[in-house]
Amino acid sequence: MISIQSQHLRRVDIRRDLLPVADLIELCFGSQMDKDGREYVQQIRRAAKDSRYLRWMPGAGEQVSLPLHGYVWEEGNRIVGNLTLIPNYYKGCWYYLIANVAVHPDFRRRGIARQLTETALHHVRDHNAHAAWLHVREDNFAAQELYRSLGMVERVRRTTWCSSSDIPPETPPKEITITRRVKSHWRFQNQWLDTVYPQEIVWNMPLQPSRFNPGLWAGFIRFLNNEQIQHWSALYRDELAGVVTWEPSRHSADTLWLAVNPQIEQEAIQALLTYLRQTFSLGHPLQTNYPAGRAENAFHQAGFGKANTLIWMEMKFR
Ligand SMILES: CC(C)(COP(=O)(O)OP(=O)(O)OC[C@H]1O[C@@H](n2cnc3c(N)ncnc32)[C@H](O)[C@@H]1OP(=O)(O)O)[C@@H](O)C(=O)NCCC(=O)NCCS
Question: CA-CA distance, 96 to 259, in Å (whole number)?
């Protein structure tokens, strides 16, 4: 059983907490929030005013990303601390993402974030989940210190790269040609996807490699779901060097999934991304998530800039 130590700490109650939680998230993350972050806060505000949502959601399943689950810290009838728990079921296991850890600036360094996080970790353990994860920016040393002191362990660092009109792409290597992906490339694409987006983190990404299968059945499913994804391959002297998948998104940028031969990743990434930047130059920006510190020159040379680098930390329970 979770024991709540302080009279100020309690579970989120969506019928009354959503607006103050949205305000607190905006206050604490405002300066670093991107377009998707701002849209997330707007979504919380809309939900707070939607009586049908408020009536229906408390009985809904676990897979809802709004701050439905989590804890708040309340003092003098004000919510001054928040932590959101986002449960996710993947391949037979429950994982929880800890998000929106925020404490009002006037209440910091009093141990509020520590108590919120400790309580959240007990919650995850008591719900028989496989692990708790969180993402923290590489430059947020205060929060990293907090999570490390509670026993969370760094697993990976991932950088989000975004196409930028401020960075003109350079000429890609001449030995590489770009073609449409063909069926025989799938075996390599699938294998390389596994190395760029390893199993341990893929539960927390909107990636299902089986959707990229060129077979008839996967094509039929994509048709039914009206999914518009496209693939291009990079050939280095006629050998496959990598495949990129473009997926349109409702969010601020379309998503690219890179599957590249590690022996030749610089050249493959530069050529594929330069090609896509030229192909989609008038549309949405493009973004992709890649292991931090890898192929950085290739991203720059293709006209992509760093949006952020996040440290993914985990506490395993099983
Ligand atoms: C990070 C944040 C949540 C910490 O909240 P808090 O209630 O002040 O943190 P606590 O008082 O519980 O501190 C717990 C530990 O975190 C670390 N820490 C917190 N603030 C720190 C700071 N400004 N500098 C260095 N370490 C800090 C310390 O290790 C501290 O332990 P200690 O007090 O025993 O030294 C708060 O500063 C905040 O809301 N920041 C903006 C939003 C944010 O970055 N959230 C984290 C996203 S991953």
Answer: 27
pLDDT in tens, 157-183: 999 999 998 888 899 889 999 999 999
pLDDT digits (tens, 9 = 90+) for 61-102: 545 556 678 999 999 999 999 999 999 999 899 999 999 999
Q: Are residues 187 and 298 in the same domain?
A: yes
Is 195 found in the same domain as 123?
no
**Model pTM score:** 0.92
The alpha carbon of 152 and the centre of ligand 1 are apart by a number of angstroms equal to: 15
**Tokens coding 318:** 């099983």
Residue 7 identity: Q
* Cβ–ligand 1 contact at 8 (below 6 Å): no
What are the residues facing 141 on neighbouring strands?
Answer: none
Structural domain includes residue 153 = no
Half-sphere exposure of 153 (CA within 13 A, CB side): 5
- The residue count of the chain comes to 318
Residue nearest atom 4 in ligand 1 by C-alpha distance? 113
d(CA 124, CA 153): 16
Atom of ligand 1 nearest to the CA of 100: 47
Q: What is the mean pLDDT of residues 237-265?
A: 92
Ligand 1 atom at minimum distance from 115 CA: 12
Domain count, the chain: 2
Per the structure, the complete domain to which residue 242 belongs is given by: 160-309
Ligand 1, atom 10, residue with closest C-alpha? 111
